[in-house]
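Is 1-deoxynojirimycin placement plausible here? Inputs below.
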Amino acid sequence: MKENFLWGTATASYQCEGGWNEGGRVPSLWDIFLHKNNLENGNVASDHYHQYKEDIRLMKEGGHNTYRFSLAWPRIIKNLQGEVNQEGINFYHNVIDECLANGIEPFITLFHWDLPQYLEEIGGWASREVVAAFEHYAAIVFKEYGDKVTYWTTFNEPRYYVFSGYKIGNYPPAIDDTQLTIQASFYMMLANAKAVKQYREMGQNGKIGIVHSYSPIFGIDDSLETKIAMRNADNYFNNWILDTAILGEIPVDMLGRLHEKYDLSFMKTDDFKTIKENTVEFVGLNYYARALIRPYSGGETILRINNSGAEGRGTSKVVVKNWFEQVWDPTSEFTEWDTEIYPQGLYEGIMMAYRKYGIPIYITENGIGMYEDITVESIRDEKRIEFLNDHIDAIQRAVEEGADVRGYYIWSTMDLYSWKNGHDKRYGLVAIDFENDCKRKPKASYYWYKQVCESNGKTIERKREYDSNFVSL
Ligand code: NOJ
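Reply from A.M.:
I modeled the complex. Tokens:
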């Protein structure tokens, strides 16, 4: 990789911090939703709130030169009036300072899904008032940490947050309402542009981007019907975030289709102007799998995601009525959570994004969730090592072909709370003994990654020959 390539790992505040009612933190919508429904929660998570020094020490010893994490909005802003919680501000000063003292570049996300509950109560992201609250929060943190932090991203995975919360209904606010899905999507993208504007107007010296759950689109064949379905799928999965944030343009064919059935009058002329004028300068792509698309063949919309892993392979199903269907290649390999393992999709996805947008790319998440016995003496997660090796290999190919990829973050730093999948879905390079004061124990993959970081990628085994029966965009 090029000099100064960022090698690190990633987490999110709600998923690793714990300390849910400490240090003046107010509840997020996740606390309320999980407590109310008696579901596994992140009250303690990986106890990073108390053990962050140990985690950063492990990063340093593991050869990392960066750490991607998010700030918990409910730790920083106390209420609707926008009052600041000094203890929360101090906590992140400590984390940032600890990173810097250890040669770890902080890469910060403003919003990784833990919306303060007081904002959910006024309508959450489907409400324009939350856009203003986000601007206020962004201004506070830019002012506090701006001289220490170079890399900022506004949102983590708007699509997952909005579709899961407002349409699929498996995340809070757990509803199924297309009109609100469109509103929340739009307001998040507007808030992204407003935060970018704010950042520039404050004369900050770093860089600002957005993180997207990237699903590179492939089609089952080359027919016109498939091409149209692929375009619809690309709008649905990717373009409404990437085109909007990077080009400042919401895909017009998508707006046209939505306009036929839904009320878009909440989108104002000034909003389009703000979006056009305030675009990001880099993009973070989270890559887990591609989306393989065929034409819509009838029936109602189905958005069924295998969330527990228990349902078995092939039980996810995605049909968007009149738009497209997603299918899975039966010859592929899948994780225990029904996610296709397809490193070639990362290579092709980077090339597609780079050709289309031409801005610097960071792979802000990539990793594999597994059931693991962490009580053994040494945790030999060979499957994870193979997975990571093949994905880094894919990035190296893209770089060799000219793509400007500047960093790579494994999800996740340590085992953590995986939303509705609880704590059993382990992603970490470092195991957490959730039963035993969250003791840390590095896995084999941690030692393997140390060599990758320290050799700047030279220890990666270059092996995969790519070929595909399917058509990419
Ligand atoms: C996406 C999200 O950013 C993160 O919160 C989640 O846990 C991982 N990917 C794994 O699914």
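Short version: The CA atoms of residues 137 and 400 lie 40 Å apart.
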